[in-house]
Structures are given as C-alpha cells and as structure tokens.
Amino acid sequence: MKNQEKSALLPLIRHDLRTNFTPYSSAASEMGKKDDAIYLNANENPYPFSNLEGLDRYDVQQPPALLATMAKAYGARPDQIIATRGSDESIDLLIRMFCESGKDAILSCPPTFGMYGVYGNLQGAKHIQVPLIAKDNSFSLDANKIIATAKNPDNNVKLVFLCCPNSPTGNVFAPSAITEIISALNGHCAVILDEAYIDFSAQDSFINILSDHPNLLILRTLSKVHALAGERVGATIGGDAAFMAFMRGCLAPYPIPKSVSANAIEALRQAEDKQESMINRIIIERQKLVSAFEKADIVRNVFPSETNFLLVEFISYDAAQSFLKTALAAQIILRDISAKPDTENCLRISVGNEADTDKLISLIKGL
Ligand SMILES: Cc1ncc(COP(=O)(O)O)c(C=O)c1O
After folding, report:
1. Cβ of residue 223 lying under 6 Å from some atom of ligand 1
2. Ordered DSSP codes for 13-57
3. Per residue in 31-46, pLDDT tens?
4. How far is the centre of ligand 1, averaged over its atoms, from the C-alpha of 224 (Å)?
5. What is the pLDDT of residue 286?
6. Class assignment of domain 272-365?
7. Is 355 helix (H, G, I), strand (E, B) or coil?
8. Which residues, in sequence order, are bridge partners of residue 84?
9. Whether the CB of 111 sits within 6 Å of ligand 1
10. CA of 314 to the centre of ligand 1 (A)
11. CA torsion angle for 199, 289, 302, 292 (degrees, to 10)?
C-alpha cells in the first residue's frame, strides 16, 4: 500500500485488507461522465419507464454536488468527506476495515449509542467498555482509563467511539477530554467522534480542528437536524487523505441513490436559512417537557440535554414502566432503556412538535 508512511490511519487497518485488497472499480468511476458520450460500459438499460427518466443510469459513488453542499455546510473540503447511507453505514464499514474478527477490539463508553456494539459483534470484534463517570447530574469521559485501556497492547483496540453530544445521556463532553484522548491515541487507534446531535448543542464541532488530529474521523448525519432520517444520508469527515481514499475503495460502488442525493442537497440548502429557527423550536419544546417532568412525583431526575431528546429517570423501574404504558395507551411510543444497568429506571424521550408536547404534558400532569 502506497502512502502508508504518511498516514496515521492506514497502518491500523486490518492487515489482510491493507496488504491484499483490490477495490471494485466501477464503470462510472473509471470513465467519469461526459454528457455527449454514449455509455455502453455498465450494463444499464436505456428504456426507463415514464417519469423515471435519468434513473436508468448508475450515479458516481460520491456525487460531487452532494459533497460540495456538505462541504459548505460542515466547513470542510469535499475531499475530506465520504457520503454514506446514514452514519450507521460508516460505523459498520469502519469496524470491518479496522478489526480482525476474534482479535481486534472497539472501545466505547456506555451508556452510549448501541450500534457501535452491534456492528462490533457482527464483525466478531471484542467490545471493550469504559463507562462514563456519572457525577453531578452529568456524564463525563474517564479520559485516563480510556487512554490506558486503548493503549494496552493486550487489548488490540483499533477504534475508540466517542459520541458527543452523547445518546442516550444528552450531554456533551469537555472538549479538553476529547482532545486529550485523540492526541494520546495518535499512532495507536482511530478515534471516531460521532457528532450526530452537535447542531443542537452550543459546543463547536471538532471539524474546525480536524487538521490537528490525523487519527480523528468525525461522523455526521442528515437524520437529526436536517430531518431526513428516511433518506439515509451520513458523512465521514477526516483529514488523512490516503485513508479517505482507501475508505472510498471499501465502500459500495453506488451507495447514494440519485433521488436521495437531490433531497439531501435540498435539505442542506434549506438548513442554511431555516436550521436555527427550527432548532430554537425544538429547544422550546424540550424546555416545556423538562419543566413538566421535573414537577412529576414519579420522576427522580431529568438530565440536562444538548440534543433533541431527554433522558428521564423515574423513581423506580415500575414507575418508568407505568409511564411507558400510559404513553403507549395514548399512542405515544417512548424508548424504554429502564432495564439496562447503566440507565436504570430511565426512558429516552424524543422532542416532538408542539402538538406532541401538549399531549405528552397532559399525560405527565395526569400522573
Ligand atoms: C449517536 C448516533 N449516531 C449515529 C446514528 C445513526 O444515524 P443515521 O441515521 O445517520 O444512520 C444515530 C441514530 O439515532 C445516533 O443516535
């Protein structure tokens, strides 16, 4: 593999992949697209059904207009971005690229987003967990323990997942702790910083300082602030050019459908003007829910949130289940995490629209 000496991440990729993998080279990527050429190189069918014209052809793997729009929105260069089918696809692909089944490990900090562990299991990677420190109504990273565990050669940790703001706790971590972890692990592990909810937070994205951290990869998604979960669009953003080129080679040849790309561009463009007021609306609804839950006798704690959801701790497991059932009877579905040891008696509740808030508050008042 060329450029390995210049890259912080390429040497960490699975050995078999690094030394013996030839990416699929699609017809579209080999030839580029010229409007006046006749394309007989990809076994497409030139007779599309009506109203489906233009969809008879494969698109390129990384549509340039989508990358340019994402780059503007994220404050990164197009060549630093890989568009994927949701950030879920990136989590899955990164684990497969870095972790040799039965040997390598991922590290995450529970309670956190469950898909890191799910995709880790799918690949047969070990899943080492360094729990967040719960203190003073907040959850923080145990930076020293994360660094020591990830650096321990017996553990073979390849990827460290940090989710900031974190789900399901809703809080952000101190930027200094994140920076300390990324810097200490340079040369040892890739740090995957999942910023799915960053736009709801007052904290700055680490994209601004990507160039200082060659072992950092940032995940963004259009499923949250862009309200486009149904289209499945995410982005991996990294400053290690050689690694990004290799990752493109490992990704499916045509991951982003043309219609999805067009809708993603539209959402990103509309967000330029409308995102701030939409976030403010969500924050207002979130605050109404916080006030209502804090007054309820069966609620022990509402954790501070910098996201579009709340982590609500009830006084007991039975109290959490009782509220879950009350909500269900009113056709409101909440996320039950009350039986998990690290979120005992808690429900995760997404912030909905004004009508959803009113309905939920009427249930809380009736408790
Ligand atoms: C923290 C976090 N990361 C990633 C994802 C996956 O998002 P996507 O819809 O882009 O796959 C989610 C989805 O809920 C999430 O909460």
Report:
1. yes
2. S-HHHHHS------HHHHH---TTS---SS---S-PPTT-TTTTS
3. 666 778 899 999 999 9
4. 8
5. 98
6. alpha beta
7. helix
8. 234
9. no
10. 25
11. 160
Domain 4-24+61-270, CATH number (from 3.30.70.2860, 3.90.550.10, 2.60.120.620, 3.40.640.10): 3.40.640.10
**Ligand 1 pocket member 307 (CB < 6 A):** no
Whole-number Å distance, alpha carbon 88 to ligand 1 midpoint, is 6
Give the separation between CA 177 and CA 171, rounded to whole angstroms: 14
The domains of the chain are located at 4-24+61-270, 27-60, 272-365
- The H or E element containing residue 191 is strand 190-194
In tens, the pLDDT along 312-367 reads 999 999 999 999 999 999 999 999 999 998 999 999 999 999 999 999 999 999 87
CA–CA separation, 223 vs 232, rounded Å? Answer: 7
Ligand 1: residue of 200, 222, 223 to mutate (most ligand atoms within 8 A of CB) is 223
d(CA 296, CA 347): 14
Q: How far is the CA of 197 from the centre of ligand 1 (A)?
A: 9
